[in-house]
Specification:
about 55% helix; alpha/beta; flat; 19 helices; 4 domains; six-stranded mixed β-sheet; about 450 residues; Rossmann fold
């Protein structure tokens, strides 16, 4: 219990509740005196010692049941136990028509079996729950796990099962009763996912390392940043951009006449006995023309925000930038950066396209781009996609990405995920990778800055 309380206090601090060492000590003394058997008395002892003002109470009330709530799973009913032999045979016939990939979850709903801990852990790894440490992502993570379990498809399969049972002669009232029980089991399963997501995020919050210096913060993964961390990084982007600008400008100055082309010089001077009188240079590096497509969904927002801030702080090193943002549809956002600082422009874009629990849909966004903005891409264009390649099981429209990529000079993809996770769950990254010239990992600000430096090589 002591370890649980320590994690609870750490999570409260991570969520913004100010708790001193003395107050933590007071909490342990109160619990030692009053015990933990009376749950309400236990809650009040922690509340009175750890929360000093009204602003911290909602956070306390949200976290307390997650750390110290009931560990019982939502109740589920075993429908199979109440079936007559005739009904069991009808259901067996109906289940033969259910897709094999959905059969396991349908069987769980019929038998009233909750997800096992191993199944929950696999889901956590698949959707990135183990890296989440902000309770605002709880519902979003729940929706991702439902997607991974094909909840929608299972719902459709259960409706088809009901239709089959009616065709086989089962009483309509009995079918409706079974449908209600199956829906109740599915709701209980969803509650289990939501409870698990909350517990895992709360535990991650409790394990979050204490505040650290900027060097370490630059190397923190985007998906582990708090709002406070992100505010600190926003202030550093301009400094990083200034350093990048100096480096790129110096690189372009050295290459303004192009590099000496030794082979072309020798060929041109054969008539002079190979004595180099006429020098030949390679074409000098030109400022790149960019088309940038950024995923600003919950999992990608910090990465895309910092990417856009860096690019627009470096505009004098870029010929032209056409910027787009998407979650479930595409929006042209370059006008937002006209006559505004990059910080103001990024804030305006993020306010106009708020994050939500609706589906990320890059395929639909590529369709929007192909219909309305394909003329922005030509043989001088560097295409940059900033995203994790996850489509929530929507059509990835790889055909459209291939068309756009082939029109460009080169296609670069920046993703926060390592290759090990490509193709897992709802990731379509392996499909997109086939049409990319370069894929750069950008899971933190250091990697993102390095990636921007590389793409500005022209």
């Amino acid at each position: 219990m002591e370890e649980r309380i320590v994690k609870f206090i750490a999570a409260l601090r991570a969520a913004g509740v100010r708790i001193s060492l003395a107050e933590s000590t007071d909490a342990f003394r109160a619990v030692e005196s009053l015990g933990v058997k009376d749950r309400e008395l236990f809650r009040l002892s922690l509340l009175s010692t750890l929360v000093k003002d009204a602003s911290g109470r909602p956070i306390f009330e949200e976290l307390f049941p997650i750390f110290f709530g009931s560990s019982e799973m939502p109740p589920m009913l075993n429908i199979s136990e109440d079936l007559t032999p005739e009904e069991a045979e009808m259901i067996a016939q109906g289940l033969r028509k259910v897709n094999e990939s959905l059969r396991k979850l349908v069987d769980k709903l019929m038998n009233g079996d909750p997800l096992t801990q191993d199944e929950l852990e696999r889901l956590a790894r698949m959707v990135g729950l183990n890296q989440a440490d902000d309770l605002r992502y709880r519902e979003w993570m729940t929706q991702r796990m439902k997607k991974a379990l094909h909840f929608k498809e299972v719902q459709e399969a259960l409706q088809e099962l009901a239709n089959t049972l009616a065709e086989l002669g089962m009483d309509r009232e009995r079918i409706e009763q079974m449908q209600k029980l199956l829906q109740a089991n599915q709701n209980a399963l969803e509650d289990q996912l939501r409870q698990f997501a909350g517990q895992r995020i709360a535990e991650n919050m409790g394990e979050r390392p204490p505040d650290e210096g900027l060097d370490n913060l630059f190397n923190r993964p985007f998906n582990s940043l708090s709002d406070r961390d992100m505010e600190r990084l926003r202030k550093e982007v301009q400094r990083l951009a200034a350093a990048l600008k100096t480096r790129v400008a110096l690189r372009q100055k050295r290459a303004k006449n192009g590099q000496l082309d030794a082979k072309a010089t020798i060929r041109a001077n054969i008539k002079h006995g190979s004595v180099p009188i006429e020098l030949r240079h390679r074409e000098h590096t030109q400022k790149p023309k960019l088309v940038v497509i950024c995923d600003i969904s919950t999992s990608m927002r910090y990465c895309s925000e910092l990417m856009l801030s860096l690019l627009y702080a470096l505009q004098d090193q870029i010929s032209k930038t056409y910027s787009f943002a998407f979650i479930d549809h595409l929006e042209y956002i370059s006008p937002d950066f006209e006559r505004k600082s990059s910080n103001e422009a990024v804030a305006q874009v993020l306010d106009r396209i708020p994050t939500g629990y609706y589906n990320t849909d890059l395929g639909n966004s590529l369709n929007d781009f192909s219909k309305n903005y394909l003329d922005k891409v030509d043989s001088r264009t560097t295409l940059i996609v900033v995203g994790d390649g996850r489509n929530n099981y929507n059509n990835p429209r790889v055909d459209l990405f291939r068309t756009i990529s082939r029109r460009s000079r080169r296609a670069i993809w920046l993703t926060p995920e390592p290759p090990l996770l490509w193709g897992s769950g709802d990731s379509d990254m392996l499909k997109y990778a086939l049409d990319c010239d370069t894929i750069l990992q950008a899971s933190n600000l250091t990697e993102l800055t390095t990636a921007v430096d590389k793409l500005l090589l022209g």
